[in-house]
Automatic annotation (TrEMBL):
<protein>
    <submittedName>
        <fullName>Acetyltransferase GNAT family protein</fullName>
    </submittedName>
</protein>
<dbReference type="InterPro" id="IPR000182">
    <property type="entry name" value="GNAT_dom"/>
</dbReference>
<dbReference type="InterPro" id="IPR016181">
    <property type="entry name" value="Acyl_CoA_acyltransferase"/>
</dbReference>
<feature type="domain" description="N-acetyltransferase">
    <location>
        <begin position="23"/>
        <end position="164"/>
    </location>
</feature>
<dbReference type="Pfam" id="PF13673">
    <property type="entry name" value="Acetyltransf_10"/>
</dbReference>
<dbReference type="GO" id="GO:0016747">
    <property type="term" value="F:acyltransferase activity, transferring groups other than amino-acyl groups"/>
</dbReference>
<keyword id="KW-0808">Transferase</keyword>
Amino acid sequence: MSNPAQVRTIPLDELDEVRDLAMTIWTKHHRSTIAPLDMDETVAALFDLDQMEEDMRERGHAHFIARVGRVDVGFASAHLEGSRVVITHLYVMGDFRGFGLGKMLVRAAQDHFAPVRDLVILVHKGDNGSVDFCLRSGFAVAREISSEFGQYAFTDYVMHKYINPSQMLTA
C-alpha cells in the first residue's frame, strides 16, 4: 500500500458515504449468510440514514471511514456505554485487509470517545477472519449472544479488550 491511509470521523451530512460503503463492503462480506434476494433490504435496514442520524444526535453514535489515496476502503460504527466503547460495525475491503486499517478504525473510535476503560466489538461467530483479527488485536471472547434480523438468526461473539490490559475480563 503506497498511499498513506487516513481515518476521519463522519459528520451527519456525510452519513450517506457510510451507507454507500456498507452497500459495497457489507454485502460482499455477508453474501454467504444473507440470501441475495434479501441483501438490499437488509443493508437498507441496517444502514437506514434516518436511524443513523437519530443514533448520532440522540445516542452519541459515531462513524469513521478509512481512506487510502482517494478511495474509501473501510468503516467503523461505535457508541459509548458508560466508559466502554462498543464497536458495532468494523469492515475493510478485502484487498485492503492486512495493512492495519482495522486497527486504525478501532483506534479512531477509542480516541473519539476518550477517556475510555475498555472496548467491545461484536463479531459474527462464524466469521473466522474477523474473529482472528480481534484476537490478534488483543480482544478476547467474553461471551456469545444470539440475535435475529428478519428471518436470519445469528450467533455473535462479544469480544472485549481493556485499555489497561492488567484488568480482568468482565464484559
